[in-house]
Amino acid sequence: MTVPSSLQQLIQALKVLPGVGPKSASRMAYHLLQRDQAGAANLAHAIEYAMATLSHCRHCNTFTEAEVCDICADDERSRRQLCVVEMPTDLLMIEQTLAYQGLYFVLMGRLSPLDGIGTKDIAFERLLERASDGEVEEVILATNFTVEGEATAHYLAETLRARGLKVSRIARGLPVGGELEHVDPSTLAQALVERRGL
Amino acid sequence: MTVPSSLQQLIQALKVLPGVGPKSASRMAYHLLQRDQAGAANLAHAIEYAMATLSHCRHCNTFTEAEVCDICADDERSRRQLCVVEMPTDLLMIEQTLAYQGLYFVLMGRLSPLDGIGTKDIAFERLLERASDGEVEEVILATNFTVEGEATAHYLAETLRARGLKVSRIARGLPVGGELEHVDPSTLAQALVERRGL
Ligand SMILES: [Zn+2]
Ligand SMILES: [Zn+2]
To answer: Which residues form the Toprim domain (chains A, B) (predicted)?
Structure first.
């Protein structure tokens, strides 16, 4: 007894999704076939439609259905600040703060030598080009404060500074409303190091 | 700034997968679009191909590309025993033991009133019909030992016995090589209850 080949292929295909191993791929396949054929058909179509319609914004590299995304096309935003993030979700998080009026650049990843992700696998060259347009005055690095995000920020800072650009990094510290008792020691240490004069 | 609609649709569509919430759906969408377009195209195709080629075996209800699956078509297997399992994966687990030579019936689910899954949502009627073919002598219930699997076994046992069929349940007990010290109390209690005369 073997699993029918089209079922095997579906289970195999589902394993390309991040965080999905053989067990969940198999559970997902049975769910799609047995419980939600409409959802399955819709998923297949949504994948194909997204691949057909989405491309990278010519300026900021985020996903867009147009050549230039809404933000880059917005004349009201300042051309002098360029905020670098890892992924489009990070851009959305910053937009939600309503605290930033400049433009963005989305790397679509982070440097991670251990996973074999180097400068060629993120939009590194395009960022250098974009930041050197003569209008950008400050590059704000807003990559994550993970090991990879920090390494990426460090590398970008060196490269961009070498090109004469002003580079800054978003701050680490206690969250708004945060209590010293409930924050992890390294964040607290960093909040001390990054203290501001009053 | 909004997420492009085709990207939103893809994230939405991925949420039909079991265990996938908004956050992982978004991570999956970016992964497919950014890191694995070949995998994405293949996934869309595999879903459509599986839905087009797979159907339920006319006898045992498992997924098959033919009208009757390999096992049901195998003349060497005994027609007298019918082993009832929840899902095709369970059937494969039992096949791996090489300890069973009868046929199967796959419910494609379990009764779970709390989730709104009743007898109409699993292949209950088909099982009754299948088990009443005049050849089946014993129905072996091999649903899981979860609350839902147990309830399903209980309900099936009553219904099948009422039709004059011999019904059995696979045993609970210590695993082969299992030590009393490392087994949970309810399994141990059950191993005592289900002790065999020697
Ligand atoms: Zn843009
Ligand atoms: Zn069959």
So the answer is: 80-175
